[in-house]
């Protein structure tokens, strides 16, 4: 059994799933038509969205108790790998929307595709749909499928790409809903983030490792960087980087009153490589330099 199967184009993926190729750059794939297969690692060189039933064998991602269990959307950007090797056979279930980056070249979607952060979420940060949301998603997919089965004309590409964009807009709305309906869980993450920063600045880590990064904090909390960043933004109105910087300034204000330490020493203790970078951030945030703040209070 191959350790990794790399799908370089839509035609290869369609063939793998017993699906007819109607367009070389985009497909709506009925995974129920695929033959039973063994678990393996798969890489896709195109954008991939899976609409999965909550309980299915081909993607093992350990779902816990969720509010919505009518279906799950999982998003992969080109080059991402999913799955695991297994000797067990399973029957794929669900639908996949796959589209190659070349499809959207020259369209507004090409300029905005990186704004859809969920293509970089981890699998366990999937979008869980209500019944009504699933109906809307299926309607979007059916419109794309209709265009694929329709004779190609001068409108085809625009309509396909526009419907993919509509689909992604709905996914953004539904993720916003998911952040809200899991408010309790999100606040738990926010509390852990705050505790993480507090303990970080009470240790010698800033001196040895520098300032905490958004990526390192996300890893500590077992979240993908983009999901973590979006969650913090939704909960606080600040980016995760702004939140970290606010904590740095909060700690700095306390330490500035230690007359036995120079501003440079405080900067190094906070994790800054260069004291002038600390002074610049402090002035941006407070309107005064560290020395001015020390003398004013």
Automatic annotation (TrEMBL):
One of its GO terms (molecular function) is DNA-binding transcription factor activity. Residues 191-296 form the HTH araC/xylS-type domain. SUPFAM superfamilies: Homeodomain-like (SSF46689). Keywords: DNA-binding, Transcription, Transcription regulation. It holds the Pfam family HTH_18. PANTHER family: ARAC-FAMILY TRANSCRIPTIONAL REGULATOR, TRANSCRIPTIONAL REGULATORY PROTEIN. This is Helix-turn-helix domain-containing protein. The lineage of its organism: Bacteria, Pseudomonadati, Bacteroidota, Flavobacteriia, Flavobacteriales.
């Amino acid at each position: 059994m191959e350790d990794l199967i790399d799908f370089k184009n839509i035609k290869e993926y369609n063939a793998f799933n017993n699906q007819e190729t109607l367009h070389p750059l985009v497909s709506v794939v009925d995974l129920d038509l695929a033959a039973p297969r063994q678990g393996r690692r798969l890489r896709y060189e195109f954008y991939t969205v899976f609409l999965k039933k909550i309980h299915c064998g081909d993607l093992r991602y350990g779902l816990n108790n969720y509010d919505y269990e009518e279906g799950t959307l999982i998003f992969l950007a080109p080059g991402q790998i999913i799955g695991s090797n297994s000797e067990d056979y399973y029957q794929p279930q669900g639908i996949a929307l796959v589209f190659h980056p070349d499809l959207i070249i020259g369209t507004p979607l090409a300029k905005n595709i990186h704004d859809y952060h969920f293509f970089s979420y981890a699998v366990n940060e999937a979008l869980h749909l209500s019944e009504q949301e699933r109906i809307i998603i299926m309607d979007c997919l059916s419109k794309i499928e209709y265009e694929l089965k329709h004779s190609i004309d001068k409108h085809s590409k625009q309509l396909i790409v526009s419907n993919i964009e509509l689909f992604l807009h709905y996914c953004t709305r539904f993720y916003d809903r998911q952040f809200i309906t899991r408010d309790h869980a999100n606040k738990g993450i926010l509390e852990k983030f705050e505790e993480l920063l507090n303990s970080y600045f009470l240790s010698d880590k800033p001196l040895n490792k520098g300032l905490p990064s958004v990526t390192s904090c996300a890893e500590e909390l077992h979240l993908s960087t983009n999901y973590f960043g979006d969650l913090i933004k939704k909960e606080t109105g600040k980016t995760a980087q702004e939140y970290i910087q606010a904590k740095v300034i909060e700690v700095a204000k306390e330490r500035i009153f230690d007359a036995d330490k120079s501003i440079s020493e405080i900067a190094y203790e906070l994790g800054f490589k260069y004291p002038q970078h600390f002074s610049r951030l402090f002035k941006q945030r407070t309107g005064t330099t560290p020395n001015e703040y020390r003398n004013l209070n």
